[in-house]
Amino acid sequence: MPSGEPFAYAILRVIPRADRGEAINVGVVLFCRAAGFLELRWHVPIERLTALDATLDTDALGAQLRALESVARGDPAGGAVASQPPSERFHWLVAPASTIVVPSEVHTGISDDPRATLAQLFEKLVR
Q: Which of 63, 74, 84, 93 would staple 88 via disulfide (CB 3.0–4.6 Å)?
């Protein structure tokens, strides 16, 4: 039996032009209830995104991702949803709500160290 605690995560993807359906991974959100861990990491690869859509407002995209990060942290800057328990914030973060930043399906795993697992997933899936 594996050691560690169960966690859930989703990849955040940017779809600059919905009509083309092309997506680039820009972030990962990971939630581990047992460890009380919810964190979102992101990076905007501007050159890759503007290659898909030269008119993409990368400043607005960064602001949207910072707002999602605030929700994950439970920061009041994230609005009313940021005051919810971590499980509610995670479900809000992985619910499709935008045509630009789109979460993947939720995946699961087991981890002894959710922060390290998030770093590994981020490097593998985003960087």
A: 84
Cβ-Cβ contacts under 8 Å for 111 (sequence gap 6 or more): 4, 5, 7, 32, 117
Half-sphere exposure of 81 (CA within 13 A, CB side): 16
When the pLDDT of each residue in the chain is averaged and rounded to a whole number, the result is 95
- For the segment 29-72, what is each residue's pLDDT rounded down to a tens digit? 999 999 999 999 999 999 999 999 999 999 999 999 999 999 99
CA distance 74 to 78: 7
Number of structural domains the chain divides into: 1
Q: Which residue reads 């032009």 in tokens?
A: 17
